[in-house]
Structure formats: C-alpha cells, structure tokens
Amino acid sequence: LVIGDYMKKIKRVLATCTLLGFAVVGLTGCGMNSSADKDILRVGAIGFASTLEPTENYFSWVVVRYGIGETLVKFDDTMKAKPWLASKWSVSEDGKTWTFIINDKAKFSNGRKVTAQAVKESFERTFTKSNRAKTFFTYDSITADGQILTIHTDKAYPNLSGSLGDPLFVIVDVQSEREGRNFSSDGPIGTGPYVVTSFTKERAELAANENYWDGDVPFKRVEVPAINDANTRAMALQSGDIDMAINIGPGEYSLFTDNKDYTVTEASSLRDVMVRMSQKGELKDSNLRAALIAGIDRDSYAKNLLKDTFIAGKAPLPPSLDYGFKQLKDTNPYDPNKAKTLLAKSGWTDTNGDGIVDKNGNNLSLVLYTYTSRPELTLYAEAMQADYKKIGIDVQIKIVDYTMIDELAKTGDYDLLVSSVVTANTGDPVWFLKQYWGSNIDGDNPNNGSGFNNSRFDELIALAGSTLDATIARNAVINAQQILLDENATIFLGYPKINMIGKSYLKGIHTSPSEYYVITKDLKK
Question: Does the pTM exceed 0.85?
Fold first, then answer.
C-alpha cells in the first residue's frame, strides 16, 4: 500500500467511527481489527529492501528480521554471541582457527539438512557476491566435515564469532539456487520459522515453515506492509490494520505508553544518528567543522524535539556500550558565540548584512542530505537548519532515497550527510569505526568517502581489531574516538531508544538492541 492510499483508508475508518458514535481517540473496536484471526500476523515496518538477495546492500537485515533466515550465532541483549545454528564453537590460541559445530537438528525450509558443507557454501557465496564481507574478516580456507566447520583466517580476528552474527552471514541453501531458486524475487531458502510467498518493496507475505527445526511456528501467515511514515504506522496500529509496529516515532509514542490495549517494548539502541562532513572544499577547514558542531543544540533536540526518546549525542559510540562515553571530552558543546568566533577566525563574516556569513564575495551555503524512512532524521535536519541560520550559515536540506545515502557516503559527494547507523552490530565497534573513518586505501573502507585520514586513528583501530587482550582493545577504541572528537570529524547528534509496539493480545514482543530479531518463533497471539 502506498502511503497516500493508507492515509485515505485511515481517514475513512475515522469517519465511520465518528458516525457510529465511537470515541475517535482510541479507535478500539472500529476498523479492520486483525486480532480476530489468530493464524495471521500483520506487522507494519519500514520497507527499505527492494530485493531479498542477502548480499545486496543491507537487505540481509530483512531476511533475518522477517524470520526467513538465521545465522550461526545470535546476540543477547548485552550483545554477547550465543548459539543458534551453531551449537558451540572454539578458537585456537593464536586466534586464527575457529571451529563451529553445526546443530544436528537444523534444517532448511525445503527440508534439506544444514551440514557444515552447506554452511561452507553459504559463506563462500557471501564472500563472492559481497565486497562488504571481507571488511569483517578474510579467510585462508574453510573446511567441512560432517557437522564440523573450520575456518582458518589470515590473522587473528578476536570477534569472528560475533561477525558471523551479522545478517550478511545468514545461512542459505546454495543448492536451491543451483536448482533455479531466485533469491532476489523469491527469497533465499533459509532456516527461519517463515518462508516467502511473495515480496515487493511495498509488501512481504510469508507462510509458516513446515520444516522448521526449532519448535512450533505460531502463525500460518505473516503480512508485512511497508509503512514508511511513522505517523501512518501509528494510525494503522490504532485502527487495527496491523498487530504490531516497528519503531513508532516520538510524536506518536505517548499514544501507546500507559495504555492497557498495547504492549510497549523499548531498548537503548546501538544506533548513532550522525552527520558526516565531507572534508573537501570549504569543509577542509577544521574551524568550520568545529563551528558546525558548536552551533547546534543537541541537548535540546533530544529533550524537546524528540521528547526524551533520544539521548543527546557526543561521541561515535552510544552510552549503551562500555567504551568510555563519560570520560570522552566533547570538544565543541553547544556555544553559538564560539561558533561565530570560529567562523570569523577562518574569514567568514557577514559583510553585506544579509544575515549569511561570506568570504571572497561568496555566502557560506551548504547542502545537507537526508532521507525520510527514519522520521527523526528530517526533524534533526530542520532543527539544524534553523540553528545554523542563527549563526549565519545557509543550509539547504535535500531529501533523497535511502539507497542513495550509501552511494553518497562512498563518493563523498556531499557537504553534510545525515544518517542513522548501527555502531556495534556484531558486538564489537571496531568494524564500524574502521568503515566510517579508517583511511580508505584501495576502497577497503567504502563508507569513508569523506576524506578523513589520520594515521594514529588507523593504528589504534588496527590494535583494537587484532589484540586478544580485551582491556587493550577497549582503551584503543576509547582513544580512537577522542581523535575523532579532537579532529571535528563528524557531528554526533544522538542515540535513539528503539521500540516495538503491539496490541496487548500479542505475546513475545521483544526489542533487541541489535534490531535483528523481530518476527520470531516466540511471537504469538
């Protein structure tokens, strides 16, 4: 359903309720209430995946979120890797040989047994088709013997087991593809409780996996309409068109809290809403970047604009992770007078009285890119635009499709780029820090198109990613973050609290900090 149609549909429901004398505020008991059918689950979500090919973009997240596929390990709420398709694992003393025992009960949805050979083929497919795979680790060899999978790596990767919990490494039946299965349109053959019956970017339909290996499957059918607007998701949940919504925005959140008709689950997320600053053109100037950081009121954004559903930003890693958030020094807290001084120091003053600072006859005008599938991003963008106007900077907001953000990040063809990113999706932030700020030699760090380059930062991240000493790794990560703050590399706006809200008749709703697990075998009516 397109958003326009959905809004019209909701308005019709409201009108009907009013005519019948129902209280419009609650919408309970009016509309298409899906609680009546216990065999069907309807979930409102953001539709960002245009295919179900797990190696394309970040579409593997959808494969795992929708219960289609599973990985060798699963993260608990502290981001510790726990057994899933792998029943256990071990690593050699030098950290270069990992042995995984594949659960003997595991089956693909077509009934084929999940053997170590099947897992080997799945990993080899991922590395062949995804350039992103090698950013987690590279291997010398993978061998399979019955249910024993052995991975030999080129160097020590202390967090390799966590890396395999990233949805990119979802286990798929490669043999089914050889037999003609089209993963992009039909979905991969995975091991999750549900299988794809139809898929478009606007809607996914799933059915129970009759060969599920890990218990009963609660629903015969699952429908996932793409409802990209947060307000529309909230209205659809109120009207009964969906049973559950993923991430209700701050403007509608209070409608569901302390309401017995709904179950609200929330978690402090691993996300960081940040503004990448391309260190090209005028933004090569560290003073200008510092002014852009000091010129915005991040505390007010979190408290007032986002109604305490966010924590104010400071550092690359959120306070939910134990990487020195409190001890890190924010070198540019909100101070508009300081921002004006920094601008003047670099020659930016308002010489013609038009309210915009200029230099050499040119106004300081920047373009800020963002996207709408996360409602907080446009709220942030508009608030920043207003704050920057106060200090004499003209910022134009340009809204693009979500998929274009990745392309812009790679090329660096932007001034300012607002996006929401996960900082420790494998339980370890080293990958995130390297990808976004590591020296981008030979395209090794595709998300760093900004031009940021710092050899000491690279050394610290290399140390954190190779040492087997957890204390040394943690200290290296903390020091690397401080370099980013000292160099005015990026604006860290805030860290969202994520939520899933469902009707009270739903059981098993749980919001995981990783954001990977949504439609699970434990979710039932």
Answer: no
